[in-house]
Specification:
Length: about 375
């Protein structure tokens, strides 16, 4: 069963430091311990993703810690592999924290790759968006969209089926490798959900068939679509989360003009989750990072980057969201039909898409 989290009602509960903070540690003690460690190592956090540039800067300014940023363009699968590869490594290549697609949280827990920690705002995170034991927790979400360079594409596609038209020859790209990157996997799933008319059980298979047809038609460009390739015309249509597309639109400043389209069907919302590596060289800095991300300041930082923070309902209920931030977001009706795949649905689709992409579609996506 899918859940539309945009309609969730979250009770406004008092925030008590005793709720978590390493289950006994005060915030002051945590800050002191983190400062003693001196730094935090992140991975796969491009500055234009969800406003992370400003979020990282805010964390550094607030606590005076250095942030070692590994491989900003990595996908969720790469993050998991980085933890596995650095189990006994306390050096700069070992990530302390990860930000991964929803389905990667439970699998990382099952493999013993992450450790539990409940932030002080734990009770304001919807239960359906977090592990009950604190191993992983939802951080933000958006919906899959079409990012279109309208200098090149004059007839902008409105739905998934439109992408198969001859008008879009050598035009359509994914924003990652569907064998490992959550964003790309969810794009394939969304296309399939549209083709399957909302039947989640068929979405992965139908998505692979759709991309096989797209590739056969010569419309699929097998490279990772980015703002630069969009602007250069190499990938004039990129399938990516709306917050990334909207951020690109700001960055490009009309050169070229960009239109962000939420498709008429197959509107898939994607939740990303945070977790701390079980082998984190800087565990206290990692916990402090989580405290910052789930504070009002951190959550509003994501909203500035066009993401819906997971505590959105709580912030809205308590009048903590500035009107100018809300005004910059797409209208609420654009999200009215958004589908939030369940964990079971995501795990099943990821398994099919990642493993069968090569045989069904046969297009290796270059970075």
């Amino acid at each position: 069963m899918t859940t539309n989290w945009m309609r969730l009602t979250v009770s406004a509960l008092a925030i008590c430091a005793s709720t978590s903070l390493a289950f006994s540690q005060s915030l002051d003690e945590l800050v002191a311990a983190a400062k003693k460690e001196g730094s935090l190592t992140t991975i796969a956090l491009p500055h234009d993703w969800c406003g992370y540039g400003d979020v990282i800067a805010g964390f550094k300014a607030k606590y005076g810690l250095e942030v070692n940023e590994l491989n900003p363009d990595a996908g969720s699968g790469d993050e998991i592999e980085a933890i596995k590869a650095n189990k006994g490594n306390t050096g700069p290549q070992a990530p302390d924290v990860i930000d991964v697609g929803l389905s990667f949280g439970p699998s990382a827990k099952a493999e013993g790759l992450i450790q539990p920690y409940k932030v002080s705002t734990w009770d304001t995170i919807p239960d359906s968006a977090k592990d009950a034991d604190g191993y992983w927790y939802g951080d933000y979400y958006g919906v899959m969209s079409f990012e279109v360079n309208t200098d090149i594409v004059k007839d902008v596609p409105k739905d998934w089926a439109d992408l198969l038209k001859p008008d879009y020859a050598n035009a359509v790209a994914l924003a990652g490798d569907p064998r490992s990157a959550n964003q790309a996997i969810q794009a394939v799933y969304a296309a399939g959900l549209s083709a399957a008319k909302g039947d989640a059980a068929k979405a992965a298979d139908e998505g692979l068939k759709f991309f096989a047809e797209l590739n056969k038609a010569g419309n699929f460009v097998p490279v990772t679509g980015k703002a630069a390739s969009l602007a250069q015309g190499a990938t004039p249509i990129v399938l990516r989360w709306d917050y990334n597309a909207l951020a690109d639109k700001d960055t490009l400043k009309g050169n070229p003009p960009v239109e962000v389209v939420i498709p008429a069907s197959g509107v898939v919302a994607g939740v990303y989750v945070q977790a701390i590596s079980a082998f984190a060289p800087h565990p206290n800095a990692a916990k402090l990072w989580m405290e910052y991300l789930y504070s009002d300041e951190g959550q509003l930082g994501w909203l500035k980057g066009y993401c819906h923070p997971i505590r959105f309902n709580d912030l809205a209920k308590n009048g903590k969201i500035p009107a100018d931030l809300l005004a910059k977001m797409p209208p609420a009706e654009a999200y009215a039909t958004a589908v939030f795949p369940s964990l079971a649905e995501q795990n099943a689709s990821k398994e099919i898409i990642a493993k069968q992409w090569d045989t069904v579609v046969g297009a290796s996506v270059a970075k």
